Amino acid sequence: MRVCVRMSPPLFLLLLVIIQYASCELPSFQLTTMNTLLQLLQTHNHNSKWNSSSQDLTNPCSWTGVLCNPNNSFITELSLSSFSLFDISNDYSWSSLVCGIETLEKLDVSNNQLAAIAPPLLLSSCGGLKVLNFSNNMLSGNIPSFQTTLERLDLSHNFLHGVIPDQITELVNLSVLDLSYNRLSGSIPASIGQLSRLQQLILSANNLTGEIPTPITLINTLKRFSANQNAFTGAVPLGITRYLSYLDLSYNRLTGSVPSDLLSQPNLLTVDLSFNKLEGSIPVNVSKSMVRLRLGSNQLSGGLPSWSFGNEVPSLTYLEVGNNRLTGMIPPELRLCKNLSLLDLSHNRLFGYVPRELGDLNKLQVVQLDHNNLTGEIPNEIGELQILVRLNMSWNSLNGSIPPSLSNLQKLINLDLQVNNLTGPIPDSFGTMNLLLELQLGRNRLGGVIRSLPTNLQIALNLSRNNFEGPIPQSLSRLQSLEILDLSNNRFNGGIPNFLTQMGSLTQILLSNNLLTGLVPQFHKNVNVSTEGNINLLYPPPTSPSVDRKNNNAASVGIVVASSTASLVELMVVVIVAVIVLRKVHRINH
C-alpha cells in the first residue's frame, strides 16, 4: 500500500537540497542551497529559526538543523525540532527524500504540527536511520513498521491509536521506546521481552489494559519503565525492579500487595505506585539509593517501618504514603533522612505525638500530616524548618497554643491547622509572615482579640468556629487580594466596617453567628455575603428590581383607575344633558 505524507514545500526544498548535497560536489550544492534557502525564507518566513543573515552560506554543515560528520562532511543528522513545520500538501513523499540521504542517522521533527497519518511508515526503508523523533506533533493512525536499525523511537504526545504491534519487537536494537501520551489500547505484547537492549520503556497516558507481562522483568538492560495513567490490572510482577532505576505504575488498577523485595533493589531510585488498589503493608527493606517513594492513594495498612527510613535511606527526598490505612506512630527515626524535602502522611490513621525530631529535617519544603488522629502540642522545633513552603496539620486532635516559632517560617505559603483543639491567641509575630497566602485556623478553640495578621494573604483567611472577640480588625483592610474571608461563629462585635466593601478581590465574606451590630453596608453584587445569626444587625431597605416592578405596576393601576373614573363622569354628564333636552322637546310638543 502506498502511503503519502503531506509536507510543507519549504521542508521539501530543504531536504531536496540536502539530497543533492549528498551526491553532488560542494560548490554546485552551495549555489543551489543559496537559492533554495531564499525560497524557504520567502514561503516559510514565520519560521524564526531560519534567518539568512545568521547562516554561513559557504558552509552548509553550519546551517541550523543540519549536522555533518566532521571527517567527511556527510550529513548525519536533521534536527528540525520546533521549526513550525506543518502539512499543507500531499504532493511530496518523504520516503524518496529522507531515505535518499544514505548517511542520515538521526531525524528529529518533534514539536511541530505534522499531522500525516503515519509518516514513519515512509521511513521503514531508511537503512541507516538510528534515531527517529516525531514527538509532540499531530500524528494519528496505527503504529507502523520501522527499519530494524532504529535504536531510539519517540512517538509520544500524538494521537496514535490501535494496539502496540508485535512487530515492534523486531526492532532488536532499540534502547528507547516512547509511546506515551497517545490513545493506544490493548495490552503490552508479551514478546516485549525480546528487546534485550531496551533501557527505557515509556507507555504513560494511554488506554492500555490487561496485566503487565512478566517478560519485562527479564530485560536486564531496562532502567526505566513508565506505564502510569493507564488501566492495567492484576498484581505488580515479582522481580520487576530487579534491574530498574525508575518505576512508575501510578494511576492504574493494580491489586494485591507490594512485593516484599520490590523496594530493596540496589540501583532503585524512584518508585511510584500511587493511585492503585494495593493492600498489605509497606515492605520493610528499602534501597539505600532510593530518592522518591510514592505509595499514596492505595489501601495499605500497618505501620511505617521505623528503622528502614533513616540511615538505611540517606538519599530519600520524597516520601508520599498519604491516603491509605496506615496506623501507629510517626517514627522519630525519620530525622535521619536528612535530604527529605516532602513528607506526606496525610489521610491515614496515625496517632500519637508529632515527633519534635522533624525539626532536624532542614530541607523539608512540604509537610502534610492532616486527617489523622495525632494528639499533643505542635512542636516548637517545626519553626526551624526554614525553607518550608506548606504545612498542613489539620483534622487531628492537636492541643495547646500555636507556637510563635511558626512565624520563623518566612517562606511559608500555606498554613492549615483547622479542625483541632488549639487554644490561645494568634501569635502577634504572625504579622511578619509576608509570603503567607492562605491561613486556615477554623474549628479550634482559639480566642482573644486579633492584633496582627499576615499582610499578604490572598487565597483564604479562615478563623471560623473559634472564640475570637472584639471588633473586626482594621488590619484586614490591607488584604486587598484576599478571595475568601471567614469570620463566622465567633464573638466579634461592633459594626461591619465599610473597608470590607472596598476589598475588590473578595468572593466570599462569612460573618454569620457573631455579635455584630449596626447597619449592614452595601457589598458588590458578585460577593457572596453571609450575615445571619447577628440579631442586632440592621439591613437597608430592599432595592431589588422586583420592588421597582411592583411600584410601576401600582402606578399603572392608578392611571387606569383615574382614566376610568374620568370617563364615567363624562358619560354621566352626557346622559344628564340628553335627559334635559328630551324634556324640553316633550313640553314643546304638548
Folded structure, characterized:
By secondary structure, the protein is α/β, with parallel strands linked by helices. The chain has a domain at 353-545: Ribonuclease Inhibitor (Leucine-rich repeat, LRR (right-handed beta-alpha superhelix)), CATH 3.80.10. It is 14% helix and 21% strand. It has four helices and 36 strands. It has a 21-stranded mixed beta sheet, with no helix packed on it. The protein has an eleven-stranded parallel beta sheet with strand order 16-18-20-22-24-26-28-30-32-34-36, with no helix packed on it. Strand 1 (66-68) and strand 2 (75-79) form a beta hairpin. Helix 1 packs antiparallel against helix 2. The protein starts with 8 loop residues before the first helix and ends with a helix.
Question: How many H/I helices?
Answer: 4
Q: Biggest β-sheet: count, sense, barrel? A: 21 strands, mixed
Radius of gyration over C-alpha positions, nearest whole angstrom: 38 Å
Question: Which range does the strand content fall in?
Answer: 15-25%
Shape: globular
Poorly predicted runs of 5 or more residues: 1-13, 18-45, 91-95, 546-571, 573-590
Mean pLDDT: 84
Protein name: non-specific serine/threonine protein kinase
Membrane topology: Single-pass membrane protein
Main location: membrane
Pfam families: LRR_1, LRR_8, LRRNT_2
